[in-house]
Amino acid sequence: MSTPRRRLQDNVACLADRRPPTPWTRKLADGDVTALRELGTALDRYYQRAVAPYRGRLRAHVEADRSRRGKALLTGGVDRLLATLHPRVAWRPPVLQVLDYVDQDLHLHGRGLVLLPSHFCRHHPVTLKDADLPPVLAYPVNPGFAWLTPDRPASQDPVTTLLGRTRAATLRASTTAVTTTDLARRIGLSPPSASKHARVLREAGLITTRRDGGAVIHQVSGLGVAVLNGELPA
C-alpha cells in the first residue's frame, strides 16, 4: 500500500513485457489510491484464506531450514553454507551462481547478502530485480505441500486426541527431516524426552529414523502423513 510510485511503475513495466497493460494496471502504475486499495484488500483476503491457516506449519519448516543452514555454517563455514544451499546453485568463490536463471549480475560491494527461505520460491533461488534494493537471495523451502494441514486448536485436533499433545507435536515437527536436538527445540522438551517420544512413534510406524554421521535424523513416514491428513495418500 505504501510502495513508491517509481517502484510501481518499474514493476508494472516489467509485467508489460509479458502481458499488455490494462486500464487497471495503468492506474496501479500511477499510484491510484483506489487501485492500490483493491490490490491490498485482495492480497489480504488471499493471505487470510490460503496462508494464515497454515502459518504454524510453514514457520516450523522455515525454522528447521534455518537450523540446518546454521549447522552448515558452524561446521564448514561460509563455503559449506553456500555450496549446499540448493542443487541449482554453484559456489565458485567469490561468485555464487544460480544455474538456469535470468541473465543478471548482482554485485554486493560489501553490502552482504540476506538468505531468505521461501515457500513461494518453487524451482530455483531468485534475487530481487532491482539491484539498488538490499541484496536478497530467496531460495525454495520444500515442505511437501501435500503434507500441510491447517493449524487447529489442540482441543479440536483429532491427532492430538489420538496421540496426546506431545506426541502429536513430535509427529508434526518431523514433517521435515530433523535431528533429535532440533526436534527437542521445536516441541519444547529436552533431547532425551524428545528421543523417547520419537522412538514410540517410530515403533508405531509413524516416523522413520536414520543416522547421518553423528546425528540421528527423524522424518514422518507415509503412514504418519496419512494420520496427520486424516486420509490415505492418493
Write up this protein.
This protein has 234 residues and is an alpha+beta fold. The chain is 47% helix and 15% strand. The chain has nine helices and eight strands. It has helices at residues 5-16, 23-29, 33-51, 55-83, 158-163, 165-173, 180-187, 191-203, 222-229; strands at 89-92, 95-98, 114-118, 126-127, 136-140, 178-179, 207-212, 215-220. It has a three-stranded mixed sheet. Strands 6-8-7 form a three-stranded antiparallel sheet. A two-stranded antiparallel ribbon has the order 1-2. The longest helix is centred in the N-terminal third of the chain and has 29 residues, at 55-83. The radius of gyration is 22 Å and the shape is flat.
Spell out the blueprint of helices and strands.
Elements: H1 5-16, H2 23-29, H3 33-51, H4 55-83, E1 89-92, E2 95-98, E3 114-118, E4 126-127, E5 136-140, H5 158-163, H6 165-173, E6 178-179, H7 180-187, H8 191-203, E7 207-212, E8 215-220, H9 222-229
Parallel strand pairs: 3-5
Antiparallel strand pairs: 1-2, 4-5, 6-8, 7-8
Helix pairs in contact: 1-2, 6-7, 6-8, 7-8
